[in-house]
C-alpha cells in the first residue's frame, strides 16, 4: 500500500473541519489546526533503533561475603546484586517479611549477626547493613 501524499490528507482534513462546525463557519485558523494534526499523524518518522545497554563492570565486581553472611548466601565470591537476590530468596522461603508492614524484615538466628543484632530492619536499611559484610 502506498502512503497518501500530505496534500491530499490536508484537503480531507479541511473538509472534515468545515463539516464539524455547521452552525459557525469554520475559520481558516481552525481548518489549519485540524490540517496540521492530520498531517502530523500521516507523516510519521521511522522508529529509532534501540541499542542494548552495556552493563557497568563495577556492578559485576565479585565480593567475598563475611562468615555470617556466607551461612545464608554461600562462601564463593559473587556480585552484590546476586547477594541481594539470594538474601531475598532466603527471606521469602522462611517468611521473614512482616505481615502488616511488608517493608520490614524480621531477623532469625542466621540474620541477626548480619543485621548488627537488630530484630527488625527495613528493606532500605538492609542494603546498608549488607555492605559491612561484603569485601
Description:
By secondary structure, the chain is mostly helical. Helices cover 44% and strands 7% of the residues. It is elongated and about 75 Å long. The N and C termini lie far apart (62 Å).
The CATH first-level class of the largest domain comes to Mainly Alpha
Name the strands of the widest sheet in spatial order: 1-2
- Structure class: mainly alpha
Shape: elongated
Report the major sheet.
2 strands, antiparallel
Helix-strand pattern, N to C?
Answer: HHEHEHEEH
Determine the number of helices (DSSP H or I, runs of at least 4 residues).
5
CATH architecture term of the largest domain: Orthogonal Bundle
Q: How many structural domains can be distinguished in the coordinates?
A: 2
Question: What is the CATH T-level topology of the largest domain?
Answer: MDM2
Rg (C-alpha, Å):
31 Å
For this entry, what is the oligomeric state of its chains?
A: single chain
Amino acid at each position: 500500500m502506498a502512503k497518501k501524499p500530505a496534500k491530499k490528507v490536508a484537503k480531507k482534513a479541511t473538509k472534515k473541519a468545515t463539516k464539524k462546525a455547521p452552525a459557525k463557519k469554520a475559520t481558516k485558523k481552525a481548518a489549519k489546526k485540524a490540517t496540521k494534526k492530520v498531517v502530523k499523524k500521516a507523516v510519521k518518522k521511522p522508529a529509532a533503533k534501540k541499542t542494548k545497554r552495556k552493563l557497568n563492570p563495577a556492578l559485576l565486581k565479585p565480593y567475598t561475603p563475611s562468615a555470617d553472611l556466607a551461612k545464608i548466601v554461600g562462601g564463593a565470591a559473587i556480585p552484590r546484586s546476586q547477594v541481594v537476590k539470594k538474601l531475598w530468596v532466603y527471606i521469602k522461603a522462611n517468611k521473614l517479611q512482616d505481615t502488616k508492614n511488608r517493608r520490614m524484615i524480621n531477623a532469625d538466628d542466621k540474620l541477626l549477626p548480619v543485621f548488627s543484632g537488630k530484630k527488625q530492619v527495613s528493606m532500605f536499611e538492609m542494603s546498608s547493613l549488607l555492605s559491612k559484610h561484603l569485601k
